[in-house]
Each structure stands twice: as structure tokens, then as C-alpha cells.
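Case study 2.
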Amino acid sequence: MGDIVPLNARHPLVGTWRDKDHEWGSTLQFVVSALGSGFQVRGIDTHDGEELEISSVQWDGRALRFLCLVRSTGRRIEYELRAVSGSEASLHVLH
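Prediction:
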């Protein structure tokens, strides 16, 4: 079995991620922080301030996957977040 390597604040996924198209894009914002050898994700809808329920955070070494529940609508979404560069990430809806 391999060693557990703690993540740190310099990891490319650590930070606040939001759609760069503020006028027509998504109003969801995700804050990713390092937590031991994994990540913690916090989500908010900046349109109305609703806190999103985040669960099942998984890191496979390349992609960060997590489930998001929007309580006001009951909608559950599975996301995959990958670093593209130091200032950009790609966010994909999986289900």
C-alpha cells in the first residue's frame, strides 16, 4: 500500500471556483480546501445565497468528484472538477 500524502493549499484545485461568465453562466460557486489527504468542498448559489449540501467527496489523483444537493429544488447533481491551469478548472456534470 502507498503512503498517504497530505494535500496543501498550493494544490491547483484549492480555491474558489465559479463560472467566468457572470452574466449568463451558472451562479453556483464551489470552495475547495485541502483536508488531510483529501478535499473538503463547500457550495453556494450566489444568486440567492443558498448553501448547497455537498457529500461523497472523492479524489482519484486527477479528478475531484462530489455530489451536490440543492435543497430548495431537491435536485441532486454529481460533479467532476479537474484543474486546467492555475486559474482555470473544468466542471462536468456526471449525473
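The mean pLDDT is 87.
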